[in-house]
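The records we work with from here on pair a chain with its fold. These numbers are not coordinates but entries in a learned vocabulary of local backbone shapes. To see the layout at work, look at the sequence and tokens printed below.
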Amino acid sequence: MSDILPYVLSTFIGIGLAAASGFRVFLPMFAVSLASYLGWIPMNDNFEWLSGLPTLITTGIATVIEILAYYIPVVDNFLDTISIPLATIAGSILFASQFMELGTFPQWALALIAGGGTAATISAGFAGTRAASTATTAGIGNNVVATTETAGAGLMSILSIFLPVLAFILAIVLLILVLFFGRKLWRKMKTQNSGIF
């Protein structure tokens, strides 16, 4: 049992960080970079670059720009069009970075499926929420969505590093909610579109 415990813990941290990437791409990377730079979390040799000062500064600047950009009308909608692939990449990298002694193929296969899949699903859910907000509030409600996403990314990043089991549970709940409400929204839109034609 003690042999698999590090892998289970790495999975919990990785899923939590991937979920955080679904909210914001750079904030979780900044959190991991800061935590590894300060020695709070160990870093796989292949991901040593994440704990370097250049990465810390770059992800810090990118985080501030990304957060502010989501409060600018039109720019927020453009960011939504590129957020899903970027979140998938970030989620995969952050998930993979948590595994110390795993072969390259299983590490990246798991990272793409679990990390990338989690990040993409949550990112798509919030992109849909922003689209609904734009349509129903003429974009006025988008600031509330942006604030919620930033808070979610920050909370999930912190929990993933310090309370990974709780972060994992929250990530699973988030995935279920996104899938449940996404399916409901899809059915509603399909019904409305069929009524038009």
Summary: The chain is about 80% helix and 0% strand.
